[in-house]
UniProtKB/TrEMBL annotation:
This is DUF2911 domain-containing protein. InterPro entries: DUF2911 (IPR021314). Pfam families: DUF2911. It comes from Maribacter ulvicola. It comes from the Bacteria.
Length: 194
């Protein structure tokens, strides 16, 4: 009888140890699976790539750019000096494409794809459409490739626009405005679809 009770006790102890080992093994597998499937949160880009598009009449107008943030910096006249060409975005040059000819500042901009550059200034910004649209920043910018250049007075706002933003707004069936806003500056100019 004593041997039987002893045998049952030993069997129960061994059984508990085996069950404990199985539970530990399952926990270990679960922890390893959690560790391998959990990835760190993707870091948000400082200058996200974005675009602005609109149909005005039968013209499709598309701006493609990277949108830098102010991040508590003085942008115009600080980070971006006055009277120096800027690619109007971050990283690659900003480009604009239109499938129809546009009239901008009493001049024709033929249908096509263009690099969009500006020269900021406190009183007047120079707006530039350039044939070299595929370049990093303004590394290959050359004034001889400009197809349209004109000046616009900037508007200063009290509110801060944290990220650079382009807007294309239709004002009637064949006309609209293009604007860019960043920090406290907004630059806007009208166009007409030809």
């Amino acid at each position: 009888m004593k041997n039987g009770i002893l045998f049952l006790c030993l069997t129960a102890i061994v059984s508990c140890k085996e069950t404990s080992k199985e539970v530990q093994q399952e926990d270990k597998v679960a922890i390893e699976q959690t560790t391998t499937t959990t990835q760190p949160a993707a870091k948000k880009p400082l200058s996200p790539h974005t675009s602005a598009m609109a149909m005005v009449g039968d013209a499709h107008i598309h701006f493609d750019y990277s949108s830098p943030g102010v991040r508590n910096r003085i942008v115009f006249g600080g980070l971006l000096p006055y009277d120096v060409v800027w690619q109007a975005g971050a990283h690659m040059a900003t480009w604009m494409e239109t499938n129809k000819d546009l009239n901008i500042n009493e001049k024709k901009l033929k249908a096509g794809k263009y690099g969009f550059f500006v020269i900021p200034n406190q009183d007047q910004w120079t707006i530039i459409f350039n044939t070299n649209w595929d370049q990093h920043g303004k590394d290959e910018y050359d004034k001889k490739d400009d197809v349209l250049r004109f000046k616009v007075a900037p508007k200063v706002s009290d509110a801060i626009q944290e990220h650079l933003e382009y807007k294309i707004v239709q004002t009637n069936n064949a006309e609209g405005t293009i604007s860019l806003g960043w920090e406290k500056v907004i630059v806007e100019f009208p166009f007409k679809v030809e």
